[in-house]
Amino acid sequence: MYTAALILHLLAALLWLGHMFAWPLVVGPALKRAGAESDRLRAASLWLGGLGWPALLVLIPTGLFLLWARGIAPTDLLAPATYAALPALAVKLAAVLYMIAYQVIFGHRPAPRAIYTDIAAALLVLAASVLLVRGVA
Amino acid sequence: MDAYRLFVALHLLTAVMATGLALYLALMPIALARTAPAAHRPHLLAAALAARWPYLPTSRRPQLLHLALLLTLLLPPTGLLAAGEVGRNGWFALKVGLWLLALLAQLLLLRRPLVPALLLPLPLLLAAAAAAALWVRG
What we know:
heterodimer, A: mainly alpha, 6 helices, elongated, B: mainly alpha, globular
């Protein structure tokens, strides 16, 4: 069960962050300069919409389950002592809350500047996840 | 964060970008099938794959297809750095096999942008990530 949740969590994160990083940093700028077909290609590339909400539907329950399996119950997330013991968890949850707020405010509407704050939050989540899973050196 | 954890983060970041570009390869033929007339699709698909990433000097701008391939090629070196002392087992062999298939599909795309080959890298890379999780957990 733990492994299944871990794989679901990993795949949902890869798809969401992959979409979040690749579109504004690579795909969008490339298609903007794709000549006569630029508008048509950009419209096609946005056909799927955003992956944020579907990914969060998987990431939140699996993330809570993975924490619970490691001895951190959802109620522990309300206790400051949890974050004193695991500062990486505090960073990760703060970044995740920011990304949820971004989803609520912008969804997958264009946000030429704010998207970079979302990407920065995602990078923090990645770094904090490594520290949580691999331990702090 | 020490070097080992930095390498793990770097490998994850490379996997995220490779997945994002594989998602683009898989998405475009599907999106064009729904949004463009059939007669225009091959031309539009070729333009989508040949679009160049603009943030390099003109002569060095890679096409998105080549960028996707480059990111797939970067997975093993970053993965080796991130592997640390995790022992090799069957899941590791599966992960490498799935990565090789994803690489093969992308090499085929260099010759001809066949739709099945465009759809394959995404599920193969995701399956490789799942195999990696199983490998690390033993």
